[in-house]
Write a structure and sequence with these properties.
Elements: H1 2-19, H2 28-31, E1 34-36, E2 40-48, E3 57-65, E4 68-74, E5 85-88, E6 92-96, E7 98-100, E8 106-110, E9 113-116, H3 118-127, E10 130-134, H4 143-152, E11 160-162, H5 183-196, E12 200-203, H6 209-220, E13 225-228, H7 235-241, E14 245-247, H8 268-276, H9 283-294, E15 298-301, H10 303-307, H11 324-338, H12 345-361, E16 366-368, H13 382-393, H14 398-404, H15 407-413, E17 430-434, E18 447-452, E19 455-457, H16 459-464
Parallel strand pairs: 2-5, 2-6, 7-10, 10-11, 12-13, 13-14, 14-15, 15-16
Antiparallel strand pairs: 1-19, 2-3, 3-4, 6-17, 8-9, 17-18, 18-19
Helix pairs in contact: 5-6, 8-12, 13-14
């Protein structure tokens, strides 16, 4: 057993190295999306928003050598070597590549069924500036891991992928999920998928406390992290079990449901009603926040998916890339939302924003994701920009929202030594933005170039390659 754990730990280490791999040799199919390909690149006269929450700095130069940032600082202090490709970014901004923790390579394709669209989704994520992502839940098995390897090998365009195993859940009715029957089966499921190459795990709504504890113990023995979209287990119970991250901010918390039965999900509706009525300044909420922070549990904000459930909100961006049948399905879903005058989300959505802000202001680590599920409309890439806009609406400054979508995500994944901010020695994962998102966060939508491991990709070409086809592959 000890030897098996050691060998698995080595595989995990190698998987981590793959996330920080050197620039691969790209196939011709991938090169079709490349706009900048040089060994040394100097981005000059740029406004740098470095991902740390610091104010934007004008007149900066970033020197890229191969796949890393060699130098970054005021233009006068960075010497540009002969032969470098020089790109003048006057009036433009450079951000770290987005590090997003709750993404998927599937999308709602029918009642209770999710279609697998990994080929188109990875292109859209990269086009939107997502250079590192966790799939945060897997409905198919091996696709996420296979795509991770092919992207790392230069055979497909896309972000670095932390490939989450298929959901670990208790007894449930989801047709694309397994129902576990106890802690020992939970351990077997973790062991199997870790051996197959999964690099993280996600617990789901019907899991029991004992099963969750087994998942966490087995995953942590292999150096892997566990997150959860919970219901039957409260946030405080999950923190006690050693979970690393909780998804959806406080939307999924059932800690405040009066008379909740242990290991039983009271239903999302009942939990949401209690969150909608929760006081961010009240002692019960503050006690939970302290419990999470003391246990080192981070939260992932996924405001984008909940916005699609909330009447009166703007239509999500990027719908035109969807296949016509998916556009029609979301239009129908949006109409149903608009006709619901009693929707709890009218109160719940702004309250959840306030709770996430309070968690972060108390010192909690808040990361970001988008969750392209629900009734549809959460389109990869486009929704990642929208998530940052919603964080600003929640009360964060633009540079704080950018930090949540970059460095905080890297910290939650344990990758902040190499991604998530702009600094010499880090991977050259960068976004060139037309405009100044440190002042106007909506400018983050204006992505001109996405550098992944020092290679610049054209987002327009990536989007055009799948436009109107997302829903078929």
């Amino acid at each position: 057993m000890r030897l098996r754990h050691l060998s698995t730990a080595l595989l995990v280490l190698l998987a981590g190295v793959a996330l920080a791999a050197q620039r691969p040799t790209l196939t011709d199919g991938v090169r079709a999306f490349v706009s900048v390909d040089a060994e040394v690149v100097a981005l000059t006269n740029a406004r740098v928003i470095d991902g740390t929450g610091a104010p934007a700095r004008d007149g900066q130069t970033i020197l890229i050598r191969g796949d890393v940032i060699a130098e970054a600082g005021p233009a006068a202090s960075v010497r540009i070597p002969d032969g470098a490709t020089v790109i003048d970014l006057a009036g433009k901004s450079v951000l770290p590549g987005l590090v997003m923790l709750h993404e998927h390579l599937y999308y709602p394709a029918g009642p209770g069924v999710y279609g697998q669209f990994g080929e188109s989704f990875t292109r859209l994520y990269l086009a939107g500036g997502v250079t590192t992502m966790r799939t945060g839940g897997n409905m198919n098995g091996f696709m996420d891991m296979n795509l991770r390897e092919r992207i790392a090998a230069g055979q497909k365009p896309g972000p670095a992928i932390d490939a989450t195993a298929p959901y670990v859940n208790g007894r449930n009715t989801f047709i694309q999920m397994r129902s576990m029957t106890g802690p020992e089966e939970a351990r077997r499921q973790v062991a199997y998928w870790a051996d197959m190459g999964a690099t993280s795990f996600k617990a789901y709504m019907q899991i029991s406390r004992a099963e969750l504890a087994a998942v966490v113990e087995e995953a942590h023995a292999r150096g892997l992290k566990v997150t959860g979209h919970l219901c039957s287990v409260t946030y405080a119970e999950a923190a006690a079990a050693g979970i690393d991250t909780l998804e959806h901010g406080f939307f999924a918390a059932t800690d405040f449901v009066e008379g909740k039965t242990p290991d039983a999900c009271p239903g999302q509706g009942q939990g949401q009603q209690t969150i909608a009525a929760l006081d961010p300044e009240g002692a019960p909420f503050k006690a939970l926040v302290k419990t999470l922070i003391d246990a080192g549990v981070s939260l992932t904000s996924t405001l984008t998916v909940f916005e699609t459930f909330t009447p009166g909100r703007p239509t999500p961006p990027g719908l035109d890339v969807l296949a016509p049948h998916l556009q029609d399905a979301f239009t129908q879903s949006l109409a149903r939302v608009a006709k619901n005058p009693d929707s709890v989300y009218r109160t719940l959505f702004p309250k959840a924003m306030a709770l996430e802000l309070a968690f972060a202001r108390a010192g909690g680590l808040l990361a970001a994701g988008t969750d392209p599920t629900g009734g549809g409309g959460v389109v990869p890439g486009f929704s990642n920009h929208r998530q940052l806009e919603l964080l600003v609406e929640a009360g964060f400054t633009p540079v704080e929202a950018i930090m949540i979508g970059t460095l905080n995500g890297a910290k939650a994944m344990g990758l902040d030594a190499r991604v998530g901010s702009i600094a010499p020695g880090k991977q050259a994962d960068l976004l060139v933005i037309r405009g100044d998102p440190s002042r106007t966060i909506a400018d983050v939508r204006q992505v001109e170039t996405v550098f992944r491991l020092g290679t610049g990709y054209d987002p327009g070409k990536l989007i055009d390659s799948v436009k109107g086809m997302v829903g078929y592959w």
